[in-house]
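Lab manual, section 2.4: Encoding a predicted structure.

Procedure: take the sequence of the chain (588 residues), apply the prediction step described in section 2.3, and record the output as structure tokens. A sample record is shown.
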Amino acid sequence: MYSLLDHISNPKDLRKLNPTQLPVLAKELREFIIDVVATKEGHLGASLGVVELTIALHYLFDTPNDLLVWDVGHQAYGHKILTGRKTVFHTNRQLNGIAGFPSRKESHFDTFGVGHSSTSISAALGMAIASNLKGETAKQHIAVIGDASLASGMAFEALNHAGVSKANLLIILNDNAIGIDPSVGALKEYLTRVKTDRKLAAQNNIIKALNFDYSGPIDGHNLPKLLAELERLKGVKGPKFLHVITTKGKGLQQAEQDQVTYHAPGKFDKMSGERIQKAASLYTKYQDVFGKTIVELAAKNKNIVGITPAMLTGSSLKFMFEKFPKRTFDVGIAEQHAVTLAAGMATQGLIPYCNIYSTFLQRAYDQVIHDVALQNLPVIFCLDRAGLVGEDGATHHGVFDLTYLRSIPNLIVFAPRTEIELRNILYTAQLGLKNPIAIRYPRGTGTIINWQKPFEKIEIGKGVQLKTGHEIAILSVGTIAKNVSEAIHLLKDSTGTAHFDMRFIKPLDTALLHHIFKSHKTIFTVEDGTIKGGFGSAILEFASEHNYQNNIKIIGIPDNFVAHGSVSELQNKIGLNPSNLANLFSKT
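Recorded output:
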């Protein structure tokens, strides 16, 4: 059967088509995405929603000479397929395959690397200003951003600047009223009104007030209308804003009806759309340990509140929202605001559990220092997705938190080894703690079936010994202790090898460390964070301060950005798997 998509390898091929053929291509492109993602997994709903928009942009604009920037990148699968990666799309997010997000290393059509939200307008504006300075006045610059990302502070900052520039910039708002969870906030409510109130769109328009040539809202699945409006906007000078209404998951009934689940549904039947259920795990995801535990704690302590920047489902704070909606706050994609909001709450005696993915807390670093730690406010940071996260790759690996947090005064940093330790530190943190604390834990399940034990208070700054031995001491933090224990079991003779779970990266258990340094000649540190400035560096600093001359070896994430692949594949690749660890331990 003849397929248009079979004959398209790049946008030049696309532009040879008659406009009347483009709806057929859209259908084929949707089917192609569904076919691959059904078996290979990935981000589905967002890319299905922008198929027509993707085709229209590459059809009308001279990409890659005209510069197209995607926000976040969840919606860029169609873009990748149409720009030379169709034959390798089946390797998406797999080890040594193409990335799940746009990457400048991968293609010159990917003009800006993304993975975190709300960067597209700033980047495209920077490109447009550069074109002006170079005299490239004919070049077009397009930023595609979703309604959830538009609510972020960074996007507003860029809009504020772009509105007074003379940049040849087109911002396309892909408005589907949902990010991963449904969009929230006053801007979302305004956009909802604009969709039904043409007078509001035409007159009382906040985008127009920022000096943009605003048009829309238009149906993002109507290719003739898209093509006509984009063609018109190509000739409009200065900053422009096109409001496009799309349906996330368009073309797959289940994805349209359950947009949260089908954002990244795992494997599913491409014909029926039904998800293929994995065998039920005996173990609980760490995010659910957090979510269920905080509900228990909040039921007993009325001062507990939960905060998340647009990750109610991903963090499992949804459990608290269902039980205590007035004490649970989804602030949208606004990590900086989330942190300072928590700080403000803490000044008034509330106990805020601020749940932010490790890699996203990087976006609020100043607020952690200036608004929380400097004032020593007892905010409880719960850093989900710490360490290697797998197929999302370098933009999402939470490997920098130990390094960027342990340098901050007043801040306690804790990494639980098990679900029970996570549960107990969450309990301990609300017992009148006088300092802020960051609790970092991984994506995925733990190792204990019956983890809902009676609460026990954890002594701040105290580590534990897991195995005795008087020759080699292995110091680990967090769930990487499992790999260490397995490595020790692989040793031919492990009688002289001790294993300590330090638990606290800050404050360190100095009494235990003195004992270790005096009792063991060789010391290994093992962490699933970067070796530069992390837990191992803290141990080296301790040794230097106290003039210890022990042989110290640091094992962790190397000083480069780790690509995508399963967690086990990545651990094998960088040497954090049990067999490699055993080999390193045995060489002493």
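Check your result against the sample. DSSP finds 26 helices and 17 strands in the chain.
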